[in-house]
Amino acid sequence: MAFNFTAFSYIVALIGDAFLIFFAIFHVIAFDELKTDYKNPIDQCNSLNPLVLPEYLLHIFLNILFLACGEWFSLCINIPLIAYHIWRYKNRPVMTGPGLYDPTTVLASDNLTKNIREGWIKLAIYLISFFYYIYG
Fold this sequence. Notes:
The chain is 78% helix and 0% strand.
């Protein structure tokens, strides 16, 4: 068995997906801290907003690798989340810098619940992808 571009793509995807899992775990923990009043929303948003674009760009980069090597099933697993990321960033609140989370609206109960649910769903997709990359 030779080391080819597909194998390289899966190795890079495993490493990148590990980072994406950590981003998703940090997302869930951060919003849980907001829910239980352990953190200030301004500080929490200042720590979350710089991580949004790196997460999205890493996820898109990994799927560009799968597109280049013709791994269609791996790409199809992630296309719905990429579409959601693009939609979410396009419809973000008006802010002065990059990011998704506005400190003035992040504590609204519907936004907080939606963000926690989003974090758990992203974590599940990243975990499914990770195990598929290992065993698929």
